[in-house]
Amino acid sequence: xxxxxxxxxxxxLSKYSLLSKPNVLGVGYGYKEKAGRRTADLCVVALVRVKLxxxxxxxxxxxxxxxxxxxxxxxxxxxxxxLQARTDRWRPAPGGVSIGHYQITAGTLGSVVRDAATGERLxxxxxxxxxxxxxxxxxxx
Length: 141
Hints:
141 residues
Protein backbone atom coordinates (compact mmCIF):
# COMPACT_ATOMS: atom_id res chain seq x y z
CA UNK A 1 0.00 0.00 0.00
CA UNK A 2 1.39 3.40 -1.01
CA UNK A 3 2.02 6.14 1.53
CA UNK A 4 0.37 9.51 0.98
CA UNK A 5 3.71 11.14 0.07
CA UNK A 6 4.25 8.57 -2.70
CA UNK A 7 0.74 9.13 -4.05
CA UNK A 8 1.13 12.92 -4.04
CA UNK A 9 4.46 12.62 -5.83
CA UNK A 10 3.02 10.27 -8.46
CA UNK A 11 0.11 12.65 -9.03
CA UNK A 12 2.43 15.64 -9.43
CA LEU A 13 4.68 13.78 -11.86
CA SER A 14 1.79 12.48 -13.99
CA LYS A 15 -0.92 15.15 -13.86
CA TYR A 16 -0.04 16.82 -17.17
CA SER A 17 0.25 13.57 -19.09
CA LEU A 18 -3.10 12.41 -17.66
CA LEU A 19 -4.78 15.76 -18.40
CA SER A 20 -3.61 15.51 -22.02
CA LYS A 21 -5.87 12.48 -22.51
CA PRO A 22 -9.14 13.51 -24.23
CA ASN A 23 -11.56 12.16 -21.61
CA VAL A 24 -9.63 13.18 -18.45
CA LEU A 25 -11.06 16.30 -16.78
CA GLY A 26 -9.12 16.28 -13.52
CA VAL A 27 -6.47 14.49 -11.51
CA GLY A 28 -6.31 13.98 -7.76
CA TYR A 29 -5.69 11.29 -5.22
CA GLY A 30 -7.93 9.26 -2.96
CA TYR A 31 -8.94 5.73 -2.08
CA LYS A 32 -9.29 3.19 -4.86
CA GLU A 33 -12.79 1.85 -5.45
CA LYS A 34 -13.57 -1.69 -6.54
CA ALA A 35 -17.10 -2.71 -7.50
CA GLY A 36 -18.42 0.57 -6.10
CA ARG A 37 -16.83 0.09 -2.68
CA ARG A 38 -13.95 2.08 -1.27
CA THR A 39 -10.80 0.13 -0.43
CA ALA A 40 -8.02 1.08 1.99
CA ASP A 41 -5.58 1.61 -0.90
CA LEU A 42 -4.50 5.17 -1.74
CA CYS A 43 -4.15 5.88 -5.45
CA VAL A 44 -3.92 8.55 -8.13
CA VAL A 45 -7.45 9.30 -9.37
CA ALA A 46 -8.24 10.32 -12.96
CA LEU A 47 -11.61 12.07 -13.25
CA VAL A 48 -13.29 11.38 -16.59
CA ARG A 49 -16.45 12.64 -18.27
CA VAL A 50 -17.59 9.10 -19.13
CA LYS A 51 -15.92 5.87 -18.06
CA LEU A 52 -15.51 3.91 -21.27
CA UNK A 53 -14.60 0.26 -21.80
CA UNK A 54 -10.85 -0.18 -22.30
CA UNK A 55 -11.56 -1.89 -25.63
CA UNK A 56 -13.03 1.34 -27.04
CA UNK A 57 -9.95 3.45 -26.22
CA UNK A 58 -6.72 3.81 -28.13
CA UNK A 59 -3.66 2.75 -26.11
CA UNK A 60 -2.54 6.39 -25.69
CA UNK A 61 -5.98 7.28 -24.22
CA UNK A 62 -5.82 4.66 -21.44
CA UNK A 63 -5.00 5.63 -17.85
CA UNK A 64 -2.19 3.24 -16.89
CA UNK A 65 -2.89 0.84 -14.00
CA UNK A 66 0.07 2.30 -12.07
CA UNK A 67 2.08 5.54 -12.16
CA UNK A 68 5.54 5.58 -10.62
CA UNK A 69 4.60 2.43 -8.67
CA UNK A 70 1.28 3.86 -7.39
CA UNK A 71 -2.12 2.39 -8.34
CA UNK A 72 -4.58 4.46 -10.36
CA UNK A 73 -8.36 4.65 -10.42
CA UNK A 74 -10.70 6.15 -13.02
CA UNK A 75 -13.82 7.88 -11.70
CA UNK A 76 -16.69 9.08 -13.89
CA UNK A 77 -17.83 12.63 -12.98
CA UNK A 78 -19.87 13.75 -16.01
CA UNK A 79 -19.61 17.23 -17.49
CA UNK A 80 -17.95 19.94 -15.43
CA UNK A 81 -18.99 23.51 -16.14
CA UNK A 82 -18.46 26.89 -14.57
CA LEU A 83 -21.58 28.38 -13.00
CA GLN A 84 -22.03 31.88 -14.36
CA ALA A 85 -25.29 33.26 -12.96
CA ARG A 86 -24.80 33.68 -9.22
CA THR A 87 -28.47 34.46 -8.58
CA ASP A 88 -30.00 31.39 -10.24
CA ARG A 89 -31.74 28.83 -8.04
CA TRP A 90 -30.53 25.23 -8.28
CA ARG A 91 -32.40 22.11 -7.13
CA PRO A 92 -30.46 20.13 -6.14
CA ALA A 93 -27.67 22.62 -5.60
CA PRO A 94 -24.34 21.55 -7.17
CA GLY A 95 -20.97 22.17 -5.59
CA GLY A 96 -19.65 25.66 -6.25
CA VAL A 97 -22.90 27.58 -5.84
CA SER A 98 -23.25 30.42 -3.37
CA ILE A 99 -24.84 29.49 -0.02
CA GLY A 100 -24.62 30.72 3.53
CA HIS A 101 -26.09 31.24 6.96
CA TYR A 102 -28.59 34.10 6.87
CA GLN A 103 -26.34 36.28 9.06
CA ILE A 104 -23.32 36.14 6.73
CA THR A 105 -22.87 37.51 3.23
CA ALA A 106 -22.17 34.29 1.32
CA GLY A 107 -19.98 31.26 0.99
CA THR A 108 -19.61 28.26 -1.28
CA LEU A 109 -21.22 24.84 -1.24
CA GLY A 110 -18.22 22.52 -1.48
CA SER A 111 -20.03 19.38 -2.60
CA VAL A 112 -22.82 16.94 -1.89
CA VAL A 113 -21.54 13.94 0.08
CA ARG A 114 -23.02 10.75 1.53
CA ASP A 115 -22.86 9.61 5.14
CA ALA A 116 -20.83 6.38 5.01
CA ALA A 117 -23.01 4.70 7.64
CA THR A 118 -26.52 5.73 6.52
CA GLY A 119 -26.11 6.76 2.88
CA GLU A 120 -27.89 10.03 3.68
CA ARG A 121 -27.02 12.89 1.30
CA LEU A 122 -25.40 15.84 3.08
CA UNK A 123 -23.73 19.09 2.05
CA UNK A 124 -20.10 19.94 2.72
CA UNK A 125 -18.87 23.50 3.22
CA UNK A 126 -17.05 25.46 5.92
CA UNK A 127 -18.10 26.26 9.48
CA UNK A 128 -18.16 30.01 8.83
CA UNK A 129 -20.47 29.47 5.84
CA UNK A 130 -23.07 27.14 7.35
CA UNK A 131 -22.83 27.81 11.09
CA UNK A 132 -21.75 31.47 11.20
CA UNK A 133 -18.49 30.44 12.93
CA UNK A 134 -20.33 28.47 15.66
CA UNK A 135 -22.80 31.32 16.30
CA UNK A 136 -25.71 29.57 14.54
CA UNK A 137 -28.62 28.22 16.51
CA UNK A 138 -30.64 25.06 16.02
CA UNK A 139 -33.23 25.70 13.33
CA UNK A 140 -31.44 28.64 11.70
CA UNK A 141 -32.12 28.68 7.98
